[in-house]
Amino acid sequence: MSIPEFLLEVSIVVIAVVSLVTNLSVLLCFTQSADLRSHVPGLFILNLCFSNILLAIINMPSTFLGVAQSTKPFGHLFCQAASFAETFLTTNAMLSMAALGMDRWIAVVFPLSYSSKMRHRDALLIVAYSWLHSLTFSVTQLLMDWGGYSHTYASCTVHLDGEERSQVAAYATFTVLFHLGSFALCLFVLCFAYLKVLRVARSHCKRIDVITVQTLLLLVDIQPSVKDRCLAQQKKRRQRATKKICIFIGSFILCFSPYVITRLLELLPSIHIPRYVGIATKCLSYAKSSTDPFVYCLLRQQYRKVLVSVINRVLGKDHYSLSAYSTSSMLDTTDDKYITRIT
Asked: Of the residues 49, 70, 81, 136, which has the fewest C-beta atoms closer than 10 A?
């Protein structure tokens, strides 16, 4: 076994374990907190965790075996099923991220009408559309027999066998439409939603800055250090908002774009994708499922408190009462309204 293959195998194992632990932790938080279950975005998060967990259980182990054995794992039928699952779960996860972005946009841009624009019924319809959208591509792939083992990616995925050259045009069209309807569509929604959110956040920051400066000027006896700290706090809030937006969009682009680019480039007959490059981009796309719980949940105070409470309960220690923080807002914490929704 070469060193690159060993590193790729270790990466897949680490990503799978972290993905399982973190996504199951999010599900545990939902089971232990009625407050989290009452939030509309919770449906999108649950849908995202569902996709990530199945991806870690079905596809990551099969890719690990594909790298280790350099052959199709468990036979043709399993590989077709794993390929179907990958197409469905990956698309469903992307659409869940887009739904979370749209939910945040509505919550920040239309805070007073959020409860009427985004109800549980609306969220269920969005989740239903996400499943239907994902099934459309995965079922088409299954019917056309375009699922199988790809040596380039060492995994069961969308793949056209070499002897099926009569279907090259149809396969290329499907591949382009698939990535346009998943990656490109979700990237557009994420950029639109979060850039709108950032624009509103900066607008609120400017208003707060003006009010703060005017107030400080009225207090002629105020210490200069106090004024500097207040203004520094305003600047820090703006930077924090920008940083979170960059994480939401940047992690999506960083994890998925290399894999999407290689899948599109391999459609050109003159381009050959090296095996290690293909597997590395595959691992990078898998890595998104392990980072999603941190990006959307576990780094937030509300989820941390629930998780700490559960851990303390298991260890037999005193823990926080969930009711002590059950008055948090619809999206994150109590200060999530207006600008602090993203800071």
From this structure: 70
The answer to pTM > 0.85 is no
Measured distance CA(56)–CA(245) in Å, rounded: 26
Radius of gyration over every alpha carbon of the chain, rounded to an integer in angstroms: 23
Query: Which tokens hold the place of 210?
Result: 């003006």
In the block, residue with structure tokens 């969220």 = 123
Rounded Cα distance, 133 and 136, in Å = 5
Query: Number of helices (H) and strands (E), helices first, in the chain?
Result: 12, 2
Cα–Cα distance for residue pair 281/288, rounded to 1 Å = 11
Smallest Cα–Cα separation from 95: which of 196, 172, 188, 21?
188
The residues, any chain, with a CB within 8 Å of residue 92's CB and separated by 6 or more, are: 47, 50, 51, 130, 131, 134
Tell me how far apart the terminal alpha carbons of the chain are, to the nearest angstrom. Answer: 46
Note the pLDDT tens digit of each residue in 274-322: 999 999 999 999 999 999 999 888 888 888 888 888 888 888 765 444 4
